[in-house]
Each structure stands twice: as structure tokens, then as C-alpha cells.
Amino acid sequence: xxAPEGEATYFADVAxxxxxxxxxxxxxxxxxxxxxxxxxxxxxxxxxxxVVTGLVDSIHQNAPKVYTAKPxxxxxxxxxxxxxxxxxxxxxxxxxxxxxxxxxINAAFPSGxxxxxxxxxxxxxxxxxxxxxxxxxxxxxxxxxxxENKDSLxxxxxxxxxxxxxxxxxxxxxxxKELVIIYEEVKERYKPKKVKKIRLHGxxxxxxxxxxxxxxxLEKKPKQSDxxxxxxxxxxxxxxxxxxxxxIAKSAFTDAGLSVxxxxxxxxxEILVEFEEIISRFDEESQVETKEIELSEIQQKTQAEIFxxxxxxxTVLLHGITGxxxxxxxxxxxxxxLESGQQVLYLLPEIALTAQIVTRLKKVFGDRMGVYHSKxxxxxxxxxxxxxxxxxxxxxxxxxxxxxxxxxSLGLVIIDEEHETSYKQFDPAPRYHARDVALYMAHLHGxxxxxxSATPSLESYTNAKQEKYGLVELFERYNQAxxxxxxxxxxxxxxxxxxxxxxxxxxxxxxxxxxxDKKEQAIIFQNRRGFSNYLT
Length: 536
Prior knowledge:
Layout: E1 11-15, E2 24-27, E3 41-46, E4 50-60, E5 74-75, H1 84-96, H2 101-108, E6 115-123, H3 138-149, E7 153-154, H4 155-162, H5 168-176, E8 180-188, E9 194-200, H6 203-206, H7 208-217, H8 222-234, H9 243-246, E10 248-249, H10 251-255, H11 260-268, E11 272-278, H12 297-310, E12 315-320, H13 326-339, E13 343-347, H14 351-365, E14 369-372, H15 378-390, E15 395-398, E16 410-416, H16 434-445, E17 448-453, H17 458-465, E18 470-474, H18 491-497, H19 506-517
Parallel strand pairs: 12-17, 12-18, 13-15, 13-16, 14-15, 16-17
Antiparallel strand pairs: 1-2, 1-4, 3-4, 3-5, 6-7, 6-8, 9-10, 9-11
């Protein structure tokens, strides 16, 4: 369908999640005129057969000069799935990290927001087996016979029918003979989680006499009567009629040992109504500690210094030794940001660390906190994405991929263990550093950034010393806990005196021996990892 008569034709520049540097212009069909807007996903064809999810970048009336614009095939969203700040950040990343915008989009979107397409074959529209005199292989006849009984076949299904690893050569032959055609079936990966529920038919709410008549009818049907009575006990509809809309889970009836067949009969007779409800994939947190975090005197002083730096600087480095209570300070800052209506991103370098701290943070922030990392399923990550856009979450804890989430009112970014190499993405492109991208993202939102570490990276510490960042130091352990004793051993001198064994000094060998004599364990760390291995 083209533009309505008398109206101009509109085009959309679409970014594709492919390693291609430019945007591609597609024609907007008339039925999509009111639906297309920047930031929504659309289905477009690319090349001869590939069908992909694209992100609308802009809308205009300029037809491409070097190719004929293909039409947009379908629209996936009613509202944008990305924010303007996200788009700006992704375009900056493509320039800064020397990759394509499409590669950034591919990294940014969870798989559940990207369509997959599967090649399928079906009979040619003009196919007539009786009218063809083309020579057919036995395998080709088998495929044609299967397609006469089935609308379409995937490549895998075709191979299974022929009992081969691949059926491509036979499919190709049938295409060349114009007996079958190949098409792409598009599938959206994200599926909301649903639960089957039961409620009482609305007629029984509006007229209680009908309920009396119902029980009279069910006097000789005790199993059905028990089901209705069970529902009325679980859902006090006469005290709170609005609860009937929510109903109860269908599984509650079977868990109570009630008859499944009788339940089906009640639904069939429109006494009970079966429906589906979309639910969250995340466990609801019921125990939330509402008490304020109690900071020690030194922690209060540290927090005050952070706030003082935030009045003049967007970024502060908190150099705090291990066990100094940085997490309590983070929690206090997060609480204050959320109370002022801002969103918060708390970045952690590794999934293992995320798991350790999530339980603690859940008790403080409850269901307003979302967790985002690769150990979650595609569907769970999509729910966090939408939950942030819809306001269900205003606080996100996650690893480096969390920087791609659609924040709209970000006020605070916390980067814990900012020196960690895990923040660096090596392959595939974009080969970004999440700490640096988070700093730019905070800049776009006008948010404050707090970086914390017991061993700051050289570049962050230098920026702090040069007063590009604020610097706050916390060298006292929480609750006056004692620090470990550190001994420095001169390996060069030991080698000169020939008292070392390989890379082990006599001091280290003696210390290991003392530990082993006590039947205890020792750990030796080797400083050969990281991407700032040398000082020059």
C-alpha cells in the first residue's frame, strides 16, 4: 500500500544489527504512517532473502538516489524501545571504538528483542505435479509429497524426511525447476511468562440469586460443587468483588486435590472462566528492610566529602581499602537518589560478585531493583529492559552489558571495583570498556558517577590527582577491623645472594612452610593478568 492519495511518500532510515557502516532507507507503507516513529523496531528485508529487525533512526521524505527503497514489512512496537540518550551513546560508541552502529545495536539489544528468521520451503504458487514433465529424483518426489500434506517445511524437517544431514541440493534443484519456493518465517524470540487462572463468571456477581440456583443444580454433582466452594473460600468475592477479576491460579485446584475433569466442565458451562495472566519471571521480594543504613562516623564523613565533590565535579573516585564499608556508603547514596526520583545504575565487574550482593540489596530495595547479566535467560533480560522503561525498576544492578539499558532519568552511576579488567569487552565488536562508556552515559544524562576501588586503576587515580575527578580516601576498616600484615620481599637482592628458589624468595618459602606445618592452606597470586601490566 502506498501513501494516501494526495499525500507525500515518507521514508525511514533504519539501522540494522549488522556490521554495515550506513543506515538504509525504507519506504513507509500507508498502513504504517501513524505507527512509525524513531526508536521503534521494524521488520525489513535485507538482501534477497534475509529478514531482520531494524531500529528506526529518522523519518523524512527523501527517496534514496542509488537504490529503490523497499517497503517496511511490519512494525513491532507501539512505543520506542530505546531512549534518545541510548541512541546518542550507541552512536558515540561506534565512533569511539571504531566499529559500526549496527554492531553496537547488536550488542545492546538482548536476543529476545531481536527477531530470528528461519528459511522454509513451500510449493510454488503455480505448482502442478500432473502438468510437469521435468525429471524428478526420488528424494525430490519425497519432498513434494510431504509438501502436499503440509503447508511448509524447514530445512531441518526436509533433511529428516530424506534421512540426510542436509537436503540443500534437492531443495535447490526443486527451486530451479520452479516447483518450490523458499521464504523466511519470522519469529519473535521474547515470550511473556503467563499463568493460567480461574475466576467466577461475572453473572454470579451481579445477581446472588443465580449463585443459590447454581448450588441447587450442583447438589448431585459434589465434585463440581466442591470446586465452586473452594474458589469462594479462596476469593472473598462478596466482601471484595474486585478480587474476582484477579482470580486464582488454575494449579491451586489441582494442588488441593480437586477434580480436573469437573473443572473443565464448569469452564465449558461458563460457570467458571479460564484466562491467562502475564506475570513476572522474577520472584517477588516480600521482606524489605525499611530501616536506614547506619553509617559509622568515618563513613558519614566520607559520604559528606563525596557530596561536596559532587557540587563541582561529575565524577568522584572513592579510594577505600578492602573492608572499609564502601558498600554501606553506596547503599546510602542509592537510597537518597531514589528518594529524589532518580534512577540508579550499580555496575559490578563479574556475575559472581553480582550474585553475592544482590541478596543483600534486595532486602533493602525490594522489587524496585532489577538485576541484569548474561546468566539470566533472554526473556528475563527483556523483562528487565521493559521494566525499566515502564517504571517498574528504578535501580539496576548488573555487569558491563547493563550500560545498554534504557534509562530515562539516570541520576547516579556507581562503578564498583573500577580497576577490574572484566569491564573490558574484547570480542566481538564493539570492544568497549564499560567504565568509560558509563562515564559518557552519565554525562549524557547529567548524572553523577562514583567509582570505587581499593586499588584504583592508574588512569582513574591520575585523573583524580589532576583534579579532573574528585578524590575521597577511606583508609580505616569498618568496625576498626585490623588490616593484614604485608611484608615486601626484594626478589632482585635474593637472586644476587642466591637465596631464592626460582621466583620464590626465602621469606616466602619460610612463610609457606609455617602454614603447611599448621595443616593450613596458602594461596599464591601471580600478577600476570590485566591490561596495565607495566609501568613506563
